[in-house]
Amino acid sequence: MKISATGRGETMPVTQPQDCKGNTPNARLIACLQADRRVEIEVTGTR
């Protein structure tokens, strides 16, 4: 069995720059960027 993990961080955001306007951290911007705060787990294996 092999287990590996890769971090992507800012290199693979879900949102596009035009989706979330502004630089000031306010409730609207935080909610818009929420999709980028995620964990994706992919498990593969063979028998």
UniProtKB/TrEMBL annotation:
Coiled-coil stretches: none
Domain of life: Bacteria
Annotated Polar residues bias: 13-23
Cited InterPro entries: OmpA-like, OmpA-like_sf
Keywords: Membrane
Residue ranges of domain OmpA-like in the record: 1-47
Gene3D superfamilies: OmpA-like domain
Keyword set includes Membrane: yes
Residue span of region Disordered: 1-23
Protein name: OmpA-like domain-containing protein
